[in-house]
# Entry
Amino acid sequence: MAGPDAPTVIFIGQPNCGKSTLFNSIAGLKAETSNFPGTTVKHTHSRVSIEGRLLDIIDLPGTYSLCPSDPAEKTALSHLFSEKPDLIINVVDASVLGRSLEFTLELIELGWPMVVALNMMDLAEKKGIKIEPAKLASLLGVPAVPIIASRGRGIKELLDEAFKALEHAGKPGARTWSRDVESRIEELAGLLPPEFPLVANRRFTAVKMIEADRLFCDVMLGELEPGFKAEVDRVRRGIESGRSAPAYEIISAERHHQALKIAEESSRIERGRKVPWDRKVDDVIMHPFYGYVILTAVFMAFFFLIFKIGNPLETLLLKPFTSLDQDLGRHLGSNVLFHLADGLIQGIGGGIAIVLPYFVPLLVFMAFLEDLGYLARAGFLLDAFMHHIGLHGKSVGPFILGFGCNVPAIVSTRILESRRDRIITSLLIPFIPCSARTTVILALVASYLGPWTAFGFYVLNILLVAVLGRVITSFTKAPSPGLILEIPTLKRPSFRNILKKTYFQLRSFLAFAWPLLIAGSVFLSLLQAFHVDRTINAVLSPLVAGALGLPRELGVTLVFGFLRKELSLIMMLQALGTGYQGLLTVITKEQLLVFTVFVSFFIPCLSTFAMLWKELGRKVAFLSAGLSVSVAILLAWIIRIVA
Amino acid sequence: MSDTDKKMFPDERNSDIMPVVRNMRTKGMSLVEAPINKPLRVIDIAGGESVRRRLLAIGFHKGDVVELDSLAILKGPILVRSSVSDMRIALGRGIARKITVEVLDGRS
# Structure
């Protein structure tokens, strides 16, 4: 992956600064090798060639400062230091310039070559903020390029500036602070033992030792000699005594004031404008009453729109595959070749005709909400509700992502500061109906039992998450620390951005999940050809036929459901030896419901399980699996009794 | 919630300032009690270190001028707009209660 002489460029910025949009438009521009979406939210590595020059570009998760407070920020930082980049591209949200520059100043303290990408210039202008990039650049001492990443503007200029900076590696100098603070920092920097492992430079190391919490010191700066630790404490106390505030607050205030001063000097604010459109819209979206009405409407639209688009498409697309399959059956008889072809057609056709019609609209809708900035607003609205299940509004983000796919949702729990919240949220995420499960619900329940039944299923599913949350949090005593969440400016969703996001996700489905669907389907076909499936079904029969009251042929499909939930759906038809139309002739509606419930919950899919293990450890992964199995069996039982 | 109330004072770093502020109700009040759409100056941020650090990192400092945008129903979070860099933050009640502000009259 890492070549011999491609310079490393790191993209870093605060959350919501549009960093990933910028990164994607550069990485997608001329990607020589593809991205590695497996590592998504964590960090993305790409090797790109721009005008014949190679670059290793790295996208780090958003971080507010270089003093990490949540695991996502810690990842960002450990990568920043371990990669030793040749250039930092600091992406800045120009519409909140003063705030964003605090981080820029902190990055400049590193003394590494840097270029500032002033993103969202259009948004800043709409807010009445006129920024002079040249002035800003001279005040900061690093180049600043205005861009609008969502529309691809200014990216060429930014890259030109980046190449220039790479050639004449100018190292920016940190700005000095008030004398009382600065002199003590200097003192500590001078006291650093000669063999001390420096981070970036002496001053930066000294600053971090004073302002960072213990953890940062231990992990990033190595074990300190006890004698030197006393020196650090003495200097820190010296700074604190002058202003009677903790040192981290004093240093943060220094940056804060400098950042505001620079922002003031490099921009003009044209006030007295009428209330901009987004504020008016926001007043309604976040209204204590209408806000919830809209939230409910969005949720229903989410569900019905996907069904209304997906269902006719599914019927339309399924036809050629069904007739092809029937033709083959007539010509080939029932030999191994037929089973092979049959599995292939079911797999390919299932992917195209059953999964994609629901999956694509879902992706578009999610991208739309994300682009608009609705996720944070949903978090705001649902904070009170989340308190009832022992969490707070910040968990809403991961939950909503979970409707797309549970895997990135679990990674995104890194934005939660406390480990307790992370574990609880991660245990609940596998119960959120992800796109795969939504597809199963829509393709089975909505198609056969009507969209309202499916919607009811969906609503009950969410109630289940709430009840489970309540139950799980009743075992943990420590309360959640509370919500601190930035509400980004509402943005007019960009069509281009939505398409791009959809494309990236779709590509990873086509590259990873679809082959799995096809392979699984072919594999089952072969199992059937050699009658191995009967053995598996016989083993699972007590559970499938006994406890759940389903046809025993479905046993084998559950095993495969662990790989991918849609696989159970596609294989179900195959296992029962029926087409999509004839399904209700072989099983009853109740059995259909029991099957859907069981498949939905019985275990987190393989990728989710692996991610849980990786992110939170084996214990949590197995706890989650155990929880899922118990809940699935319990629910399936209840349905059997009620129905 | 009552737990956090009890904890609020013993934990208080600037315990020498806080009681005074609490007594002079005309001057200082918690963000939860503050009026909507009036410029407010942040005069104190109490609470644990991790909460304070997160507020600083997100750009919410002592001395800043903020405005309260709206209150959500059902003990929900509050919405604060920082006049300094024109951004908005949602704060849970527990945290908002630990932030002391004063109303700025006749200014800006």
Observations:
- Residues 49-58 of chain B form the longest helix (10 residues).
